[in-house]
Amino acid sequence: MKFAIALFAAPHQPASRRALHFAQAALAGGHEIVRLFFYQDGVHSAASNVVSPQDELDLPREWREFVTANGLDAVVCIAAALRRGVLNGEEAQRYARPAANLEAPWDLSGLGQLHEAAQQADRLVCFGGS
C-alpha cells in the first residue's frame, strides 16, 4: 500500500511520535511512503535548532535520521514554515533573517504537494491538528 503522511503536531506532542512510529511500521511492513508532509506546527519537527530535553526523545533528530536513511520525500509547507520562523538558506536570505534552521533532507514547498501526494497514495494518514 502507498501512504502519504501529514504531520500537523509539534515535536513535543504525542501525535508526532505516533506519526514516526506509523511511518517506521509502514516501511517495515513492506509498504511505500510517497511523501511526508509537515504542516502547521509540524514544521517544527524539521527545524535543525530544536533542542529536546535530555530525558526526552529528540523527535526532530529522529525524523531527520528516518527520512535520510530511507531516502523519503519530506516536504515542509513553506507558508506554515515562514509563519513559524522555520527557514532554509534561500528564505533566510530573501527575508533578511540572520540564520537558517532548515537543512537537508527537507524541502520547502506549497500545499499543492500534499494534494499531489494524496492523489498518488492509496491512503492519506494525518497526525495532529485541530
From TrEMBL:
It holds the Pfam family DsrE. It is found in: Cytoplasm. The keyword Transferase applies. Keywords: Cytoplasm, Transferase. InterPro entries: DsrEFH-like, Sulphur_relay_DsrE/F-like, Sulphur_relay_TusD/DsrE. Belongs to the DsrE/TusD family. This is Sulfurtransferase. It comes from Ectopseudomonas composti.
